[in-house]
Every structure is written in structure tokens, then in C-alpha cells.
Amino acid sequence: MAVATRLTWRQEKKLQNYFGEKQFSLLYKASVHGFSTNSLLKICSEQGPTLTVVYSEDQIVGAYMQKNYGEGNYLITVFVFQEITITECKVGPFKLRMLFDEDYYGNCEVSIHLNKKTMHFSINTVKKLGLSQRYISFQDCEVFRCEDLLDKRRMNGITELKESLLCAIRNYVPYGGLVNKIRILLLGPVGAGKSSFVNSVKSIFRGHVTNQALVGSNPTGTSEKNRTYFIKDAKDNNTLPFILCDSMGLSEKEGLDMDDIPYILEGHFPDRYQCNSLKLMPKGIGNHTGCPLLEDRVHCVAFVFNANSVEQLSNQMVKRIKRIRRELIKSDVVHVVLLTHVDTLDLITKADLIDIYKCVPVKLKLEAVHRKLGFALSDIFVVSNYTSEWELEPVIDVLILSALKEMLWAADDFLENLPLENTEIRRKK
Q1: CA–CA separation, 183 and 118 (whole Å)
Q2: For 311-332, what is each residue's pLDDT tens digit?
Q3: Phi and psi (nearest 5°) for 74?
């Protein structure tokens, strides 16, 4: 049976981030392996940097060591973790066995006595840590191996996954050859990150960060035109088999006209269609496309929401989004969700993006979107857009490319479900 830590997810994340974005692997647990210094040293020797944690009734106290258990002197970081606050001080250098010393006077700064389940501190250490007494009793002791979350081995795996995703997208062919390029429409509230997603995708395939689609803080949104972006691949200078369509932001009173959604889906509004006073022009006027073909219409819709504010969407906005969803369902258009700014959620670091869907804050956001807007959990994807970075990051690229691949697969579902007469008519044209 697997041995589990007493740390909560939040406590573990706080400690991981505090000591430099580490991954913890539980090596020793006193209540399982025995309250014995010899047992601890035998199990934990030659394991690299370690974190020792003891649990008293009202606080967590521990010691972080950057070297292997073994011979030599050690400089140790001792810490106290109370609620959300971590207080630390450096002790040593001294031999490792002096930290787990049965002689109270063997080490005058700090010592852990496993068989007596007590931890002792010097007066000076007590003051530095803000403790109220020189010794504490504890119920359990755990030792974790600490590894860098973004070590060379993991980064090599991420780079390989990125190359695999790039290859899959470059070689993608829309279902049945019915169209040359898939059109993906981005819809969402003002400031959700639609234009930033376009820029991020373009950046990955260009090989450097770019900002072609305007991004800003205008309360009514930066996009005032219906924009379509062809994505060019720097590898061979060819355009890729998909088009990203940026739109005006949704808002409670202004922005994209809800009545125009069906016409946008059908492909009636060409690139750079100018919105007039925050509202599209009446149908049949201006430069609307008269008889759009299958390749002109939208094949997949991605709703884009800021992960930090999706739970605060107003009732009016929720109604607008649900109304759009009804129209999409009526038109058989497959739709998904992109949650942006996931890297700014509480306790989330860049290293967490490697396995982001297992992180508790992300799980809570997915469930919130499911409850509030009705999207299936399997249709919600998280991304971190390039907004302030100067260089590309493979971990960010993998999230974006994974979401993009899923949208292409969703578009295939739409094409496959088209009535036979529709596909034949489009081919003849």
C-alpha cells in the first residue's frame, strides 16, 4: 500500500514553491518505517536534497538540506510553517547525525529525537523562528526527496512532446478533404485573451514571440473588426491547415451583436469587417459575403475565458453565452473552452504547467465553468498565453499546441457530421 503524506495539497505546494519549485517524493514516514534514527538514515541516504517535516498539534516544523545524507558538515534551513506563513533560519554547519541526536546537548541549535518524538531548539533559534518554547512534541516525521520540477530530464520530455504536437498539426488534413483549412472562431468576454491566443499560436510557429493581433486594455475590447489570421510556419514558409478568427469581445450591453452570431458562423462576414458603433451593419449591406462555401464558414468555436474571473461572470453575461451555445448546438457546430491566465492562479508556477490538470486550483476552475456555463469537463482546456515573455517556453507551447490539436479534432467531428447533400454541394462549387 502506498504511503501518503500528512501534508495537504496547499501545504505541499507552499513548501515546494518556497524552496525553489521542487517536486517532493516521500521517502520515510516514522509512523510506518519506525521512529528510529538508523531507519531514517538508511532509507534517506544518497537521495540528494531532502526536506524533513515533523507534525505537532498546531504547527509544522522542518529542516531542508541541499546535500545528500552522508558524511561531512551541513548547513541546514530550519523552518516553521503556521497556516500560510513560513519562518526560517539557518543553523550549522554540523554533522548530519547531530540533527537526529539522542544527546540533548550534542547540537545546541536544533535536534530531532525520533524515539522520544520531540524536537529541541536553542534559545537563539527559538527567537529567530518565533517559537514560544524550546521543545515541541510531535506525532509523526516525514522525509521527502526534493528534485527540481524543471530538471533536464523533464525538459527533454517536454521538448519531445512539443515536437510531436507540431508534427501532428503540420500534417493535419481536415476530415474527408472537404475543406483546405479549418476555421476556428474565438468568442469571449472583453480581455479574456482571444487576441493573445492568436499571437501565442503565431509565435510558436514563427519561432519567436510576436504580437500581430492587437492586445490592449480598452474596456470595450481592442478588436473592432472581424479578423481572420492565417498562420505561417517558419519551417517551410507555408500556411498551416487552420485559420484563427478573432472577434469583438462579448459584454453585457455593447460589443458583438448577438443577432449576428448565426451569420458569422455561416461565413457572411469577411476579414477586416469594420464594426460600426460597436455593432455590425445590417445583413446584406456592405462587404458581406453573399454565398459562403463550406470553407468560408466556422468549423469550431472556442469560448475564451480568463481563469481568474470566470466565476465572477454576471448573470447577464452567462445568459448571453448560453444563448450563443444554443445557436451553436442548433447549427451542429462543435465548441470548446479555453481558460487563459492559468499560470497566474494562486500557488501555480510555470513548473506546474507540466501536469496542470492535476493541480487543485485548476480542477476547481474547470468544475466552476462546468457548473456555471454547462460545458463538459472534457471540452475545457487551459492555456498560458504569451503576454509579457520575451522568449518562447516549451512548457507553455505544449499547453497551447495541445488545445489547438483538440480544436482541430473537434472541427473534424463537425465535418464528419455534415449531411451528405451539404458536402456534395460544397464540392461541386
Answers
A1: 65
A2: 999 999 999 899 899 989 988 8
A3: -125, 135
